[in-house]
Amino acid sequence: MGNSVLLEVCAGSLEDLEAAKAGGADRVEVNSGLQLGGLTPSPALLEEAVRLFPRGAVAMVRPRPGGFCYTAADWRLLLRDAELALAAGAEGIAVGVLTADREIDVPRIDELVRLADSRPVVFHRAFDLTRDWQRSLEILNELGVQRVLTSGQAKTAGEGAETLRAMVESSRGMLIRVLAGSGIRADNVKSLLRRTGVQEVHGTFSRPADDPGYEVGPFRFAANDQLRVVDADEVRAARRELEEDSGD
Questions:
Q1: From 62, 101, 121, 159, which residue has the greatest number of CB atoms within 10 Å?
Q2: Orientation angle between helical segments 14-23 and 232-246, nearest 10 degrees
């Protein structure tokens, strides 16, 4: 892609995808329900993501909000969503499946890797709930997972920078790559790179958006449903920071 540090944008609408493209994103993770941490996107949104990022559209595959220990019914839907996303042209899928003890659910991740058939499987920030990140990283690498999205087991990547650096060091010699995410903006991405050594970063780079009618209505339908959109200028600024850092 021509950039030493890869920039991934988390997108939840067509406008987000277009802003990510305009800002110079290398890759997108496409979702619905970003206020809930990201859920499986609609077929139409995924279709647009593949059109705009034919070699860089990763589909979130998460059938419901909440935790990551799935029932048989959840799992049936998750597998089918993964099949449909890959058939629609997604470059890869982002998933996270844990046991009740907050360990990697090895049989189910193995099944997903086999389903993806060499296309990237990304283990998302469910990883940050695991008890032993080092062993979890080794397990995911052994299973063939290609990336892990993590904040270093902290609320934000900045707060987890020390652990992120340790993760990057531990991943040397492995096939799996560390993708840093949570709280990353244009004004802190360069510092994060220097503190951690990560080569891939992920963020929403978003801003609040006008929501005519609803924002002045008598009540809201959910406490956290503030409309937000990807800010192309913020993505562009992050891209510039990454390019300047690589040229230092």
A1: 62
A2: 30
Residue 244 belongs to some domain of the structure: no
- Measured distance CA(204)–CA(30) in Å, rounded: 11
Nearest to 112 by CA among 143, 148, 72: 143
On whether residue 245 sits in a domain, the answer given is no
Assign residue 141 the CATH number of its domain.
3.20.20.380
CA distance 107 to 177: 21
Q: What is the pLDDT of residue 246?
A: 63
Angle in degrees, 0-180, between the axes of helices 232-246 and 189-196, rounded to the nearest 10: 40
Work out whether strand 121-123 and strand 147-150 pair parallel, antiparallel, or are unpaired: parallel
Domain coverage including residue 49: 6-239
Percent of the chain with pLDDT over 70: 97
Number of domains the chain is built from: 1
Locate 229 and state its tokens.
């959109």
Answer yes or no: is 246 within a domain: no
